[in-house]
Amino acid sequence: MAKKGQKRSVTKKAASKSPKAARRPARKTARKATASSRQAPATARPAPPSAGPNLGEQAERLRDEILRSKLTHPNPWSYAPKAHAWGERVQILVEEIDAKGETPAARRSLETLDAELRRDRDFQEARRLF
After folding, report:
1. Is residue 42 part of a domain?
2. Is the pLDDT of residue 21 over 60?
3. How many domains does the chain have?
4. % of the chain with per-residue pLDDT over 90
5. pTM here?
6. What digits encode the pLDDT tens for the residues 54-88?
7. What is the domain range of residue 67?
8. At what angle do helices 104-119 and 76-100 cross, to 10 degrees?
9. In three state form, how does the secondary structure of 66-81 look?
10. 129 Cβ contact list (under 8 Å, min separation 6)
11. Is residue 18 in some structural domain?
């Protein structure tokens, strides 16, 4: 029958080192951690808080409102073609914002479409029934 090898305990290794030698690596890692934590805030500054949702979220919300208004309008047969055109415009804006990011042209287009929707009586009536 073969003898099993004797397992060494981890505490024996640590105990065999002098207390001074055992503390040194801990201090080095602590120094490295504090040095990296000092550098992190300087390099990774948070973005300034914006006043509201970003442009992509606004476009998606507007698209959702248009889709919901198709379902809630009292006369969907006459309203659907108008809402469909708005839905296509806002979907193009959402895709453009996803691809290119927030550009001034996209912001103007979204604001123009939003203003058009706010002036439209049919959209306001459908929105009132949400």
Report:
1. no
2. no
3. 1
4. 52
5. 0.58
6. 999 999 999 999 999 999 999 889 999 999 999 99
7. 55-128
8. 160
9. HHHHHHHCCCHHHHHH
10. 72, 73, 74
11. no
Residue type at 2?
Answer: A
E strand map for 78-118: none
Number of helical (H) and strand (E) elements in the chain, helices listed first: 6, 0
**DSSP element (H, E) containing 110:** helix 104-119
83 within a domain of the structure (yes/no)? yes
CB atoms within 10 A of CB 120: 17
Among 4, 6, 26, residue whose Cα is nearest residue 14: 26
Integer Cα distance of 94 and 105 in angstroms: 13
Distance between CA atoms of residues 120 and 37, nearest Å: 54
Which amino acid belongs to residue 117? L
Residue 25 belongs to some domain of the structure: no
Q: Calculate Rg over the CA atoms of the chain.
A: 31
Stated as kind and residue range, the H or E segment containing 124 is helix 121-128
Scanning the structure block, which residue is given the tokens 């708005």? 86
Tell me how many degrees the CA angle 91-94-97 measures, rounded to the nearest 5.
Answer: 150
* Tokens (6 digits) for 97: 């914002």
Q: How far apart are the first and last CA of the chain?
A: 82
